[in-house]
Each structure stands twice: as structure tokens, then as C-alpha cells.
């Protein structure tokens, strides 16, 4: 019996990596930039997932000046604070957040059309 190296298969957990990523130090916090269709050609761009330490109102003020659009900060029960901007500003907001050094490019997810 000692000549044979028998390995007993252990239980395989297919979700072990996903759970480790969520709980571990390497977990990524994504910033989600979405577009919501209003009526007709009108749309809203929403930005969620920014870190709590940033001043949402200051970021909003700079975004509004940069892109000549109106916007607001909305408190949502599930998603926390969300920045809403008028129009399709997804690419503009993404470039702004990267250039300002608020978020790295690999941490941004753009959703929509």
C-alpha cells in the first residue's frame, strides 16, 4: 500500500475564485457609467460606484462646466449616491474621470446601447 500514491479527490468549488475576489484585497470596485432613455431623444447619463471619500457635488460641478449640461446627485437606497447628467455623456465622463485621476481606466464599465 505504501507504494501506491492514491489521491482522494476533494470537493471542487467552482465559485471559490469568485468568492475570493469579492472578499479579498484584490477586489475591484468598478465605476458604472450608464445611459437611461427618457422620452424621445432625451436621455440621462448616470455615474455610480465612486468612492465615498470624493465630494460628489464638486465632481458634478466640474462635469457640468466641462460638458455644458445640467445634472444632479441623487441618493438611491440600493446604489448609494448617483450622479445624473443630461444627455449621452458616457465617453465624456469616462475620459474626464481618467484624466482627473479619480478612477483608473480598467475600473470603469460603460453600459448602454
From TrEMBL:
PROSITE patterns, per database record: SUI1
Keywords in alphabetical order: Initiation factor, Protein biosynthesis, Translation regulation
GO molecular function: mRNA binding; translation initiation factor activity
UniProt xrefs under InterPro entries: SUI1, SUI1_dom_sf, SUI1_euk
Single GO BP term: regulation of translation
SUPFAM superfamilies xrefs: eIF1-like
Gene3D superfamilies referenced in this protein's UniProt entry, alphabetically: SUI1-like domain (3.30.780.10)
Domain SUI1: 31-101
Pfam families per the UniProt record, alphabetical: SUI1
Source superkingdom: Eukaryota
Family stated for the protein in its record: Belongs to the SUI1 family.
Task performed by this protein: Probably involved in translation.
Protein name: Protein translation factor SUI1 homolog
Amino acid at each position: 500500500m505504501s507504494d501506491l500514491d492514491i489521491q482522494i479527490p476533494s470537493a471542487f468549488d467552482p465559485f471559490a475564485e469568485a468568492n475570493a475576489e469579492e472578499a479579498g484585497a484584490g477586489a475591484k470596485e468598478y465605476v458604472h457609467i450608464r445611459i437611461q432613455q427618457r422620452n424621445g431623444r432625451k436621455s440621462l447619463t448616470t455615474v455610480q460606484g465612486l468612492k465615498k471619500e470624493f465630494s460628489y457635488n464638486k465632481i458634478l460641478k466640474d462635469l457640468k462646466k466641462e460638458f455644458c449640461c445640467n445634472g444632479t446627485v441623487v441618493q438611491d437606497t440600493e446604489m448609494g449616491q448617483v450622479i445624473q447628467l443630461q444627455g449621452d455623456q458616457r465617453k465624456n465622463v469616462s475620459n474626464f474621470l481618467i484624466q482627473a485621476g479619480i478612477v483608473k481606466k480598467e475600473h470603469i464599465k460603460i453600459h448602454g446601447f
